[in-house]
Amino acid sequence: MLRPPAVRAVPTEVRHWHLAVVAAYAASGIAFSSWVSRVPALAQDLVLTPGGVGLLLLCMTLASFVSVSASGLIVIRLGSARTIQTGAALVGAGLTLLGLGASVLRSPVAAAIGFAVIGLGTASWNTASNVEGAAVERALRRFIMPRLHGSFSLGTVAGAVVGAWAAAAAVPLVWHLGAAGVVVAATVVTAGFFLRADAGRRPSAAHDAASSPAADGSPDGAPAEAAASAPSPGGRAQVAAAWKDRRTVLLGVMVLGLALAEGAAGDWVALALADGYGVSHAVGAAGYSFFVAAMAAGRFLGTPVLNRHGRVLSLRACAVLAILGLALFVLAPALWLAFVGLVVWGLGASLGFPVGMSAAADDPVHAAARVSVVSTIGYGAFLCGPPLLGFVAEFTGVRYSLLTVLVFVVLSLVLAGQAAQRTVAPIRP
């Protein structure tokens, strides 16, 4: 006799798997906000203009773009668990090198290499985490991707708070970023032993979905079984086919706009507050903490909204909030209104990336390839954003350069319909 969904037991190994994925997302957030919160100190130590900071960030985004472009093949060949562990180790090493280059060697070249190593590790790590997250969703039979990305946001809050304290206490970058690198690498390498090493690999991701019964005990897994039994192309063929899929490409463009709204905050909010509103570096770092706290809240509270209203309406509401919050932050006549704008902006940026990744992974057979394509296009925001905003800032100042982001968020608003659910094995909220 089948049990109702409310009392369906979750196996212990699945719970451990879920927690390990949460740890991987949270550690990624800590790594990201650790260096982001110290951008003003980095610019000061290396005597850089906004354009110079943009060029340094370009080194990271170029490396990220190379890494994310190959991430589908990497995950298919190595499995997501090993990819996550390797990526975290690279990020830890890159953070340490960045700190050494900035505060000890005082070398922009060394700092650029550190950023490049961070980019190489982060991009494949993030793609593999999204593949793992989608596999956990299928195993649990409920939507959890926004909350997984919420764990990333909680990690960014923790990293930003520590970063604000480090900025206020004038802790040298080498000690702050070095410690963060060790914590991140050790946490993820340990958590990796509880991940499903075959998630994303051919053909076991499909098998995972096929072998998991629907939450209500109905035979909804049948389509997935058919997909799993069909011949599965090799890694290169899967990635090439994903690039030709119209919905996948448009999803990537949709994610690009909202990813830029998120990434622009990470790269420039602290500096925009310091330069545009005349506050200290510590207040600038605290402003970024407000943004990521709002984004974390949006990801946790947005999951029931997503379940109730669906992907399309949720994404459109987020895009509108991001537009309003960003405009308020830039145009606010008072600092407190700018902080209100940061909160609204953070709420608006909260669901774009996780919902886009979940939509790309609707078909478990092609999840790794399609997630890598959407991630690659989304990383175009991180590739084009820092230099674009840096060069615009040379003429308008950092604060007003952020208005450029509005154009891309409007594009995301227009393309939100591409995220409508289209699954092989339905996920039941």
From TrEMBL:
CDD domains: MFS_MosC_like. The keyword Membrane applies. PROSITE patterns: MFS (PS50850). It is found in: Cell membrane. Keywords: Membrane, Transmembrane, Transmembrane helix. The chain crosses the membrane at residues 16-35, 55-76, 88-105, 111-128, 148-167, 173-195, 249-273, 279-301, 313-336, 342-361, 373-393, 399-420. Pfam families: MFS_1. Its main location: membrane. Residues 247-429 form the Major facilitator superfamily (MFS) profile domain. It is a multi-pass membrane protein. Residues 205-234 are annotated as: Disordered. It comes from the Bacteria. This is MFS transporter. It comes from Sinomonas flava. The lineage of its organism: Bacteria, Bacillati, Actinomycetota, Actinomycetes, Micrococcales.
